[in-house]
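User:
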Amino acid sequence: MLKIVCGAGNEDCESVKRLVYVYAKAGCEYFDISARKDVLEAAKEAAQLAKLSTPHFCVSVGIKGDPHITKAKIKDSVCIKCGNCYRNCPNDAIYPSIIVNDKRCVGCGTCARKCPTGAMTMYEKDVNVKEILPYMVQNGVEILELHVMGQDTKDLDYKWNIINECNPKYASICVDREYFGNRDVINRIRNMIAHRKPYTTIIQADGIPMSGSEDTYKTTLQAVAMAEIIQNANLPVHIVLSGGTNSKTAELAKMCGINFWGIAVGSWARKIVKPYINSEDFWDCLECQHQAIEAAKTLVKSSV
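Assistant: Predicted structure:
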């Protein structure tokens, strides 16, 4: 299974529509989208246009402190208009005039890291999970995913309870090791799945979140290492690799003996089709669509 991550923070419906269309035409059936009604409708419309009969959607939310629920903002008083932010933004969420397109920002933090003055900062933009998640399940979303890269256990428990109450086909936990050691990660997972039926939970082993900008073994190494930690714990879960994933992930995971259920690819999947789907006349340009689909097919084939 290959899951294309449109971006948990990507609220740009047109961007999501084009990504889902291209990868659906390339043979992908699983898509991770933000928890917004209009984004879900855009994704569904794209699947219909691509004549994908069985699209599967995952909706992601995060706990407080998790980078997946952050957005970039600018302190105008210290911005020197150097342009580092917009030149390096992988999602084209910052304009040359140094204005952030909040809907396109996925919270990767690249702009903040490239800013020489600290003018670019990140803030949290959360959603009302009690309102939006039941709607998502009622409207065909099969997987509800919680990003738990943070230390706010109260928010974690609250949102995880909401997800379980919604009773999706699968509940997914996306976890990395930025704040915790291996034992802490496994203990957190054990506590979260204690009352769930075996193999109704997906563990998305996130190597380094939103780091897949290069197609190398080194980039995906931490995702494979994280998956091995989960696998060695012998938990009754499905393992999905993410965070730095690319066309090398499946190959490296197999070499390391990882029995993965799937691979979630975000940054790299978006990067390889970006030159084509950003075309203003994308829907009228058959050549743009063809080139995008062919680029997407290389990733789909490599992830089997």
